[in-house]
TrEMBL record:
Residues 12-109 form the Immunity protein domain. This is Immunity protein 30 domain-containing protein. It comes from the Bacteria. Pfam families: Imm30. InterPro entries: Imm30.
Length: 144
């Protein structure tokens, strides 16, 4: 089975309303993790589902995403934010906060958001950039 088939299985089972859906999701994620494809990072992000019945299993997907090269993963995240914020606002916030809490990831995020805002302005990108600036200001004031 190829990566697209496994990604489809993730999408079809992301609500995890039954034991079978949980098992299918976990098995597909395991198969994808054996041969991850950064070209599918956007699709992996979009598998996050706000109505998921098994958040601890969904966290497995979050951890999987974090194994990719930081810049590549954050770039894919930024690309899907406008759609992801609609389908999975809580997961979007979780990823955003996890990036903010990692110093080097925060810098990469800030730079990529700034570029994204210059290339294709979006109010979400602007809001996220502001939250990074606020986080950095708070951190700076604590250190001084």
């Amino acid at each position: 089975m190829n990566q697209n088939n496994f990604t489809t299985i993730l999408t079809e089972n992301c609500l995890m309303q039954t034991e079978e859906q949980v098992r299918n999701f976990e098995n597909a994620l395991t198969a994808i993790a054996k041969n991850p494809d950064e070209n599918n990072l956007s699709a992996y992000h979009l598998t996050l589902e706000g109505q998921c019945q098994e958040p601890e299993v969904m966290f497995g997907l979050i951890h999987f995403l974090e194994y990719f090269d930081m810049k590549t993963q954050i770039s894919a995240f930024i690309h899907v934010i406008p759609q992801l914020i609609i389908t999975a606002p809580e997961w979007t916030r979780i990823i955003h906060n996890r990036i903010l809490n990692h110093e080097s990831a925060c810098q990469v995020y800030q730079n990529l958001l700034h570029s994204a805002n210059l290339n294709s302005p979006h109010f979400l990108y602007h809001l996220l950039e502001e939250s990074i600036m606020n986080k950095l200001q708070v951190k700076e004031s604590v250190l001084t």
